[in-house]
Sequence to fold (310 residues):
Amino acid sequence: MISDSLHPYLDKVICADARTILPQLPESAIDLVLTDPPYFLDKLDETWTPERAAPKSYKRQQVHHLPPGMKFDPSQGKRLYEWYFPIAQQIFRVLKPGGFFFTFASPRLFHRVACAVEDAGFYLRDTFLWVYTQSQPKAMSLHHFIRRLPLPEAVKEKLHQKLHGWKTPQVKSVYEPIIVAQKPYEGTLLENFLQHQVGLFQTEIPVGKGMFPANLLLLDETETLLDKYFLLPKAAEDLPHPTAKPVALCEYLIELSTIPGAVVLDPFLGSGSTAVAAVRRKRHFIGIEIHSAYAELAAKRVQEALPALL
Ligand SMILES: C[S@@+](CC[C@H](N)C(=O)[O-])C[C@H]1O[C@@H](n2cnc3c(N)ncnc32)[C@H](O)[C@@H]1O
Fold:
């Protein structure tokens, strides 16, 4: 049963600040929250704009204009916690008892996300790892800095040689954590599921060669043994957002944790992958996105997904 007061929001891409819309949603009404919030790495924080996030904005790479994700700032984690904690509290309020909250995070700051979610009242059930094969190394060589040192050229040359291969402490990032949280359930898990239709995982969904779902998720073929256990089915897709999540990954998480007809909320919808996945898996969605360019893109992708169901 879908709460009457949820109907005005159902199957809509709402262009607004999630912090304004979440408090308007009724309590204990949402089956699943699946979201990918700003990671608070450089410009991808609460001041996110499409212009600042777009790769073209850092075409001229200079040390003081690094691409998003490259600058190290120890205060980012604390700011992320402070920003996400009240949002996680609202998500806690709107989820049904036993409902799941999947939140993506960066490998560097996911601990702050996990703490915000746990402090909001959720049980932390797991952390899934989405492993991918294509990524650009972000480590920087030090030659640029050496060149600017006030030293004779011969000394600088020696330094260049001495520091050959030494770079800033960043390896290639090839996974993203997905924190798996659950709102406390009522009675036993079985009682909660019978009452609210959430709180269990559907394990008979396609993974690898008929394997049991695992907390490692692969979407690209890698190596036969890994693929056998962890590969999720995926159609080719062209992702139109700097941090768009694959629809197939969202479909998997939705199928794992909800029944058809359930309501899936994504308060940071971006290009709309969660909404498209919900439509494709015959669930309702509520998508919130603050920037109109992304919200329009998401609405367009949802419209395109609808005919595929007919
Ligand atoms: C990491 S991206 C989400 C990408 C998305 N998963 C996809 O597949 O395209 C985070 C999104 O949150 C949006 N955003 C940032 N602050 C927001 C807020 N306060 N309310 C709603 N959306 C916000 C950003 O514009 C950005 O599109």
In short: The pocket of S-adenosylmethionine is lined by residues 17-19, 36, 38, 48, 241, 243-245, 268, 270-271, 273, 288-291, 294 (CB under 6 Å).
